[in-house]
Design goal:
The protein is α/β, with parallel strands linked by helices. About 45% of the residues lie in helices and about 10% in strands. α3 crosses α4 and α4 runs antiparallel to α5.
Length: about 290
């Protein structure tokens, strides 16, 4: 029987690093092969062939482009989006201060520009930069009506990650909610330890024990280990560190930074994207248009 393929589809500045870190730990413990993919060059522009040749169990496609998914074997997956206006604000601070420049050739010049201008001008530059790099375009063209792909918002997932990841693994048909009693725990821990050793020392431990479905209690422990405060140096969600990759962690932050001019510029570039993604019910966001709109 063909093994099922699992998939996570994310986008830039949509908590993809955090989500992948959780998935990577799950796959390590479960004896699954996960592929971290952020650009078509990672799979030589042919994702189906890459999955087959590499024996991938779980795709972690953090900058997902739907055009490259055609031809994949049947899979179950989940897709995470974020308010595109918060992506712009998060991108502004991250691209200015903290985002790695490895494999991001456009970033150094953009960072220099952001550092050389006031914040208001920098946000306008970030709106254009996100458009040029199609940061938000992939969310715009995504098919949100696929029954085998669970649609989630970052704003729902990050405040309640325990419920969110239980929902994700249940949708993937990967969740085992069976109670692990005292007699079963030694066997479970032995299998987990075997898979972790294989993950880190494959030459010494060449085999693994495929732990599918995955125990819910271990999943919740993994999510606890990856809570926001651990990634943000002890800060809680809402506490800001502009130099950190995990700057703030709350929804709606765009309201603290966008002026009416930024609103007009965003609508000019991205049209009704906020409405189409369900973050606004109408074109009126409750923000007055500037007298001299761009």
């Amino acid at each position: 029987m063909t093994r099922p393929l699992f998939a996570y589809f994310g986008h830039h500045k949509c908590a993809s690093t955090w989500i992948h870190s959780i998935l990577e730990t799950i796959c390590c413990d479960a004896g699954l092969e996960i592929a971290y993919l952020y650009a078509p060059r990672n799979f030589q522009d042919d994702l189906p062939r890459y999955v087959e040749q590499q024996g991938v169990d779980f795709i972690s496609y953090v900058n997902a482009d739907a055009d490259f998914l055609k031809g994949l074997p049947p899979y179950r997956g989940f897709h995470v989006v974020r308010d595109p206006r918060d992506i712009v604000v998060s991108g502004y601070f991250s691209h200015k201060n903290s985002h790695p420049t490895d494999d991001f050739p456009e970033l150094p010049a953009h960072r220099e520009k952001l550092k050389s201008v006031p914040k208001d001008e920098g946000l306008h530059a970030e709106i254009e930069f996100s458009f040029t790099r199609q940061v938000l375009g992939e969310m715009s063209k995504w098919d949100y009506r696929q029954p085998h792909v669970l649609e989630l918002r970052q704003e729902e997932l990050t405040p309640d990650p325990y419920r969110g990841f239980l929902k994700i693994l249940a949708h993937l048909e990967l969740l085992d909610e069976t109670h692990v009693g005292m007699r079963q725990r030694p066997w479970l821990y032995a299998r987990l330890a075997l898979n972790v050793l294989h993950w880190h020392h494959e030459t010494l431990v060449p085999f693994k024990s495929r732990l599918v479905p995955f125990p819910a209690e271990r999943l919740l422990g993994i999510v606890h280990d990856h809570r926001f405060s651990n990634f943000a140096g002890g800060r809680k969600e809402g506490q800001t560190d502009e130099k950190s990759h995990y700057r703030k962690g709350v929804a709606g932050d765009w309201k603290n930074h966008f002026t009416p001019e930024h609103v007009a510029h965003f609508k000019e570039v991205y049209k009704d994207l906020a409405e189409r993604l369900g973050y606004e019910s109408s074109a009126d966001w409750g923000v007055l248009a500037p007298a001299n709109a761009r």
